[in-house]
Amino acid sequence: MIEMEVLGSGTSTVGKRTVNFGETYFHGNLFKETAVPQHPDNSTTCREATFARYSPMLSRADALRFLGDSSGPWPVFRNATPPDDW
Question: Is residue 25 within 8 Å of residue 63, measured between CB atoms?
Answer without folding.
Answer: no
